[in-house]
TrEMBL record:
Region (Disordered): 1-26
One Pfam match: SnoaL_4
Taxonomic source organism: Alteraurantiacibacter aquimixticola
Domain of life, source organism: Bacteria
UniProt domain SnoaL-like: residue ranges: 32-158
Name the record gives this protein: Nuclear transport factor 2 family protein
Length: 184
């Protein structure tokens, strides 16, 4: 059995990494918290804008080349703000509420972060007057990539998935065209 080489130098130990491995300008805890707060707010704003039908504000949460992969139709990401906005703008009127929980953000650098969150969606497609009975309960989540874009934190990508549902029918969307997805 070969003998392993010692991995620690005189300036390092198992509890103190080598200075070569440490970033030159590490972020302060306050900087990390500010990034976590800004990025953690994005899933909440996304849900709010989707619920109230503010499609222009929703599209501005993304970078110009951002992608969005719908929880009900993973594997068909929409590319670019206009294609993402069209998903919400062009659908029939719907009474919907998204409940966002378990928002976790991992800061990667001063300009990048990633995160996950859960979403519970209740909706009524027959009537938009409140209050209404929900047609079903759908639980899923998102894996998000965030970037600092011209001084504002935005989604670079959102990849959704559906995990559970109770009642209601899972929407069966036809595969979108490449044009609708912003690929042409």
């Amino acid at each position: 059995m070969p003998v392993s080489r010692r991995r620690w130098t005189a300036s390092a130990s198992p509890t103190r990494p080598s200075p070569r491995l440490m970033p030159r300008n590490p972020m302060t805890p306050e900087q990390r918290l500010l990034i976590e707060q800004a990025c953690g707010k994005l899933p909440l704003l996304f849900a709010h804008y989707a619920d109230i039908g503010d499609h222009a504000a929703l599209k501005d949460l993304f970078t110009a080349d951002g992608t969005y992969d719908r929880p009900f139709q993973p594997g068909y990401p929409f590319h670019g703000r206009d294609a993402i906005q069209s998903i919400f703008r062009d659908r029939p009127p719907i009474l919907v509420r998204h409940i966002v929980t378990n928002v976790l953000v991992e800061v990667v650098s001063e300009t990048k972060a990633r995160g996950t969150n859960y979403v519970t969606m209740l909706s009524n497609h027959a009537n938009t007057e409140m209050p209404q009975e929900a047609g079903g309960i759908f639980v899923g989540g998102f894996a998000d990539e965030y970037v600092l874009d011209a001084g504002t934190w935005r989604f670079a990508s959102r990849a959704g998935h559906l995990a559970l549902h109770q009642g209601g029918t899972i929407p069966a969307f036809p595969p979108p065209t490449d044009e609708a997805r912003g690929l042409k």
